[in-house]
Amino acid sequence: MQIPFTKLQDQYQDCKPQIDNAIQQILDSNEFIAGPTVEKFEQAWSKHVGAESCASVGNGTFALTLALLACGVKPGHQVITTSHTFISTAESIKVIGAIPVFVDIDEYYHIDVDEIENKINHNTKAILFVDLYGQTPEIDKLKKIATKHNLFLIEDAAQSTGAEYKNQRVGNLVDLTCFSFNPVKNLGAIGDAGAVTGNKNLVDQVKMYRDHGRKTRYDYETVGYNARIDCLQAAVLLEKINIYLDWNAKKRHIANIYNQELQTVTPMTRPDCVHSYYVYVIQVPYRDGFIEYMKTKGIGTNMHYKTPINVHQPYFPYQACPRAEWVCNQIVSLPCYYSLTPSEQAYIIEHTNKWSKQHS
């Protein structure tokens, strides 16, 4: 049996007529960069997540960078974040000259909220937290800390589209929420795309920064970026908004079966969250050997993420995060796409359990 780690084609096939028609309309209209389709997507996404406003951007990394700029983060400011995430979280801080301050992780692989206040000083401007793997940290606690220290709270929701915290959909829980619609995400475009949602005044700043620093066509107020979404991506996302929550529900069903059947360390789910399961991550003994073993059985795996950001040279001086550093030697992601069949999942479970039993 051959089981790839992911099957991106399925999202397209599930709504192929609608996507093909949407793309054709863009080609026929010559509406490529800005215009009604982008505005329609921004209105639809704002409504979907319950946010005041939305700024679509070219990718998730731009979403993070422009959100930080909109919150007034400048060179020399410190931004508290997690080391266990994709590189773009910390990269967005560094690229504008600010300093990422890393906090270790808790048992959910999230930033350890109880350690944040130990890292705050007079240069701290914001907390940039990550909904790693598809669920949020304890946002209420984060809000209390941010309010107490007058900090902006920015959510990296690249992995949590459609997730919920205390019956509220991710996208309107903090000052600004940043999304990625990379094709591998639960809600994926056909190229790079992203968005920032939240406070309207802050989102308006994001819109200025994404378009070369201008508010009107000939009025440039600051140095900005060419960070706009293209209309093809907006058109595709508009069609997928109508169906992706069903895909999320199927992924949760698959994850629940893994949780029940796997005989290894499985991910913990917060009781106040609805998980999107962007990826399904377990801990296994002798991880590298496990990956090779699964490959011999035709099963694709991945690592999210092999090394924490704090150990990479561009992010020195080194800041110790021992729990993240230990976990990153253990974790591996199993196939969890929504079209995974019961027989495929049973085959994955069989061989995962066989390895765990032999190497426990």
Describe the protein in words.
With 360 residues, this protein is α/β, with parallel strands linked by helices. The protein has 2 domains: 9-240, Aspartate Aminotransferase, domain 2, CATH 3.40.640.10; 244-358, Aspartate Aminotransferase, domain 1, CATH 3.90.1150.10. 38% of the residues lie in helices and 16% in strands. A 7-stranded mixed sheet has the order 1-9-8-5-4-2-3, with helices on both faces. Strands 7-6-12 form a 3-stranded antiparallel sheet, with no helix packed on it. Strands 10-11 form a two-stranded antiparallel sheet. The longest helix has 18 residues, at 244-261. The protein starts with 8 loop residues before the first helix and ends with a helix.
In spatial order, strands of the major sheet run 1-9-8-5-4-2-3
Question: Which percent range fits the helix content?
Answer: 25-40%
CATH level-two architecture of the largest domain: 3-Layer(aba) Sandwich
Overall morphology: globular
Q: Could you tell me the radius of gyration in angstroms?
A: 20 Å
E-strand count = 14
Major sheet summary line:
7 strands, mixed
Strand content: 15-25%
Would you list the SSEs in sequence order as H and E? HHHEHEHEEHEEEEEHEEHHEEHHEH
Tally of DSSP helical segments: 12
Secondary-structure map with pairings?
Blueprint: H1 9-14, H2 16-29, H3 36-49, E1 53-57, H4 60-70, E2 78-82, H5 88-95, E3 99-103, E4 124-130, H6 139-148, E5 152-156, E6 164-165, E7 168-169, E8 176-180, E9 194-198, H7 200-210, E10 214-216, E11 219-220, H8 231-240, H9 244-261, E12 273-274, E13 280-283, H10 287-296, H11 322-327, E14 331-334, H12 342-358
Parallel strand pairs: 2-3, 2-4, 4-5, 5-8
Antiparallel strand pairs: 1-9, 6-7, 6-12, 8-9, 10-11, 13-14
Helix pairs in contact: 2-8, 3-8, 4-5, 4-7
